[in-house]
Amino acid sequence: QGSLSSNAVVLENVQETVKDYMLIMLVENISDLSEDDGDFTVEMIPEIHAAVVTFTGNIAVGEFAEKLNRNHRAKQQNITARCLELTKSVRAENIPPGTPSDYITVYFENKKNGGAQVVDVQQLLDEDAAIIAFGDYKGNA
Fold first, then answer.
1. Nearest to residue 32, comparing CAs of 63, 78, 6?
2. Do the beta carbons of residue 10 and residue 42 sit within 8 Å?
3. Total domain count for the chain?
4. What are the angstrom distances between the C-alpha of 89 and each of 54, 79, 121?
5. Who's near 4: CB < 8 A, 6+ residues apart?
6. Burial 61-99 (b: 16+ CB within 10 A, else e)
7. Same domain as 67, residue 114
8. Pair 31, 53 in one domain
9. Can you give the pTM of this predicted structure?
10. How many CB atoms lie under 10 A from the CB of residue 115?
11. Backbone φ/ψ region at 137: left (φ over 0), alpha (ψ -120 to 50), beta
12. Which of 53, 104, 103, 56 is nearest to 83 (CA)?
């Protein structure tokens, strides 16, 4: 069984001078898809010099990542792409002290916050954080 992948690609080495509209046009040029048509979204993560491109349709994300890595404009900017793996757990931070694990469970099971079935919550009280484990891959990319 191969590793499961999501419908998202991580763009790394995205410098703070690179704006989201430039990445959107780069993705459009490489994929022949349109952000305006809702084919994908781009989320900038400046803290780690990255962006996540999430495709809404059925696209070979591995093929897209390879094309982007060969693209001369991406190479000029030193931007690289890799597929985002699916995960069964996430780390939530800045959880107020004394928050019950039942609240965290219900929060993440709420459709507005992912709607995935929570199977375990491990609170890290000294870090005001928790590790939330899910029972399936829905909404956890």
1. 63
2. no
3. 2
4. 19, 27, 9
5. 85, 86, 137
6. beebbeebeebeebeebebbbebbebeeeeebeebeeee
7. no
8. yes
9. 0.67
10. 11
11. alpha
12. 53
Q: Which pair of structure tokens corresponds to residue 74? A: 């991406």
Same domain, 10 and 62: yes
Give the pLDDT band of residue 3 (cuts 50, 70, 90): very low
> What average pLDDT does this structure show over 116-120?
89
For residues 12-29, give the mean pLDDT: 95
CA distance 39 to 28: 9
137 — pLDDT class (breaks 50, 70, 90): low
Q: What is the 3-state secondary structure (H, E, C) of the chain?
A: CCCCEEEEEEEECCCCCCCHHHHHHHHHHHHCCCCCCCCEEEEEEHHHCEEEEEECCCCCHHHHHHHHHHCHHHHHHCCEEEEEECCCEEEEECCCCCCCHHHHHHHHHCHHHCCCCEEEEEEEHHHCEEEEEECCCCCCC
Range of the domain at 105: 89-134
Statement to judge: residues 73 and 93 lie in one domain: no
- Rounded-to-integer distance, Cα 24 and Cα 26, Å: 5
